[in-house]
Design a protein that fits this description.
The protein is an all-alpha fold. It has 21 helices and no strands. Helix content is about 80%, strand content about 0%. It starts with a helix and ends with a helix.
Length: about 425
């Protein structure tokens, strides 16, 4: 099995995509150990053959429609009317807009690419420094996969055979804690640098902004209440979100162009294809690991060091933060969940609690070099060098790590809301 991991590492260093490197290394291992290769297609097809996985393409599609339908502009204008008069003004608006958008798209990348363009332009015109601009935009985008809906949580739920609905509800309080910590960070930065404050919007201006954004603001409520009350499954909620976003863009706001639909659909198919290929390779990878008794061996080794669930969670955090610096988030889920789940089961760690902790870990990895995907999106959006984007975001990782530690030490921050709805 050592040869398998060495071969996989070599393929990744050569630049082979994670799904293909997993597939090649796993197939080679099975061939060398004399296993029947005819089982490979069946294992690969069985992995993505899951109802929850259907939510992924619909949430990807919903996020793209929202960015093309004028929804992001309305969310930002609403945030500016509510918080524009607070010290740090547009920085607070940036965080609030990300919290709202997180409850609609489930994707941090969509936040950076969509809201990020609007936020950076406004903050630059108002005189905010670029390091502050990219720092607050990237760190607030991390909220995207934590507050439901969440594409990584759908992936984790499928891989770990855990309730996606419980994971969604479990992310609400951690996401709000992240928002609160970033509001504080914005205030401290703004006070130190004496950033501008906008004139306080009057009641009429707030009313107009709320009216324009009201139907968009209902999206998170529709998704969460539908899942919590058992009206829809997370997969069905994804479909409802797409229909609702199309209705807003085409009928209500009339800013969504039919001409854009084909490109959006093609982009969604391309992204979904990449994700499904990852899941298929992960299915084969997990089955191979189980046959080789690797997860069980690692579980015994870790438990021989400590059988404390808290210490194991803390060790997992350190490990996942390091992994996140080098492996893209969804790929990390695909590779690590089959290995980690037996360890969790052996010490009684709640899979919903760990799922939210893991997703936050790998999403923080999206804003850490050298592989952070959000960083590369930001270099294009902000027209800045990769090095300057990294310098800007580094201080903003600190409040996110503090929230990570809080939800690790206090499982109730994750489990209280799912427990309230018996999920």
């Amino acid at each position: 099995m050592v040869a398998f991991f060495i071969g996989w590492a070599i393929l990744m260093m050569l630049g082979v995509p994670i799904s293909y490197s997993l597939l090649l290394a796993t197939s080679s291992y099975l061939l060398l150990t004399g296993d029947v290769l005819l089982g490979i297609p069946q294992r690969m097809m069985a992995a993505p053959n899951s109802f929850p996985i259907l939510a992924i393409p619909f949430f990807i599609l919903a996020g793209q429609i929202m960015n093309s339908a004028g929804i992001t502009d309305r969310i930002y204008s609403f945030g500016k009317a509510i918080l524009g008069h607070v010290r740090g003004s547009l920085g607070h608006v940036n965080v609030l807009a990300s919290i709202i958008f997180a409850g609609m798209s489930g994707s941090g990348a969509a936040d950076v690419a969509g809201l990020g363009t609007i936020e950076l332009d406004a903050q630059r015109k108002a005189g905010f420094d670029d390091d502050f601009n990219v720092g607050v935009t990237l760190s607030s985008a991390v909220i995207g996969p934590i507050i439901p809906p969440s594409i990584p949580m759908v992936m984790y739920g499928s891989l770990a055979s855990t309730s996606v609905g419980a994971l969604f509800l479990g992310g609400v309080i951690p996401g709000l804690l992240m928002g609160g910590s970033l509001f504080l960070m914005v205030y401290l930065f703004s006070r130190k640098r004496n950033y501008p404050i906008y004139k306080k919007a009057n009641f009429r201006e707030k009313l107009v902004a709320t009216k324009k954004a009201f139907l968009a603001l209902l999206t998170p409520l529709i998704i969460l209440s539908g899942i919590a009350l058992g009206i829809v499954t997370p997969t069905e909620a994804a479909i409802v979100t797409v229909v609702y976003a199309l209705g807003l863009g085409m009928v209500v706001y009339r800013e969504f162009k039919i001409a854009d639909l084909m490109k959006i659909l093609l982009d969604t198919v391309e992204t979904t294809g990449t994700v499904v290929m990852l899941i298929a390779a992960a299915g084969l990878f997990g089955w191979t690991l189980s046959r080789a008794q690797i997860p069980q061996t690692l579980a015994r080794a870790l438990i021989s060091l400590t059988d404390s669930p808290l210490l194991i969670l803390l060790l997992m955090n350190v490990f996942l933060l390091i992994v996140g610096c080098f492996i893209e988030g969804l790929a990390a889920l695909v590779v690590l969940v089959p290995i980690i789940m037996p360890i969790l089961q052996s010490v009684g760690i709640n899979p919903v609690h760990f799922g939210v902790v893991m997703v936050l870990n790998i999403t923080i990895g999206a804003i850490t070099p050298p592989v952070g995907t959000y960083l590369y999106i930001m270099t294009k959006v902000a027209d800045m060098s990769f090095e300057n984007v990294v310098k800007g975001v580094l201080p903003w990782i600190v409040p996110l790590l503090i929230v990570l530690l809080v939800i690790t030490l206090l499982p109730g921050t994750v489990l209280w809301l799912p427990g309230l709805f018996n999920l």
